[in-house]
Design a protein that fits this description.
The protein has 128 residues and is α+β, with helices and mostly antiparallel strands. It has a four-stranded antiparallel β-sheet with strand order 2-3-1-4. Helix 2 packs antiparallel against helix 4.
Length: 128
Amino acid sequence: MKAGYGIALATVAGIVVGGAAIETLHAQAKPSIYMVAINEVTNQDGYAKEYLPDAQKAIKDHGGVYVAAGPTQQIVGGLPSGRGVILKWDSMDALLKWRNSPEYQAALKKGEKFAKYNIIAIPGVQPK
């Protein structure tokens, strides 16, 4: 009889610990942040040679992930035309740490000679 109580108690304890772990994981799972940029490039050669290599390295080194990049196609509205980029970040903090990093600021200083940047950040959504 005592063995049965022990097994039952162990089962209940396992369910409680498992449930608590799942709740903790759900609380920690925050949606990613997506940065969307439309870069109005005025000098493609300078942009590609002087800005992009340093900018891409800084993005990678700071945890950013390219989701999409390339020429944009206007569907509706009045957005600028240019090279579009979507980057994924773990958090707004991570995005801002990259944006304000000395490595990216040095790349941006070069890039501003070759392009105008239009950038927004959007939080991702949790799938239901």
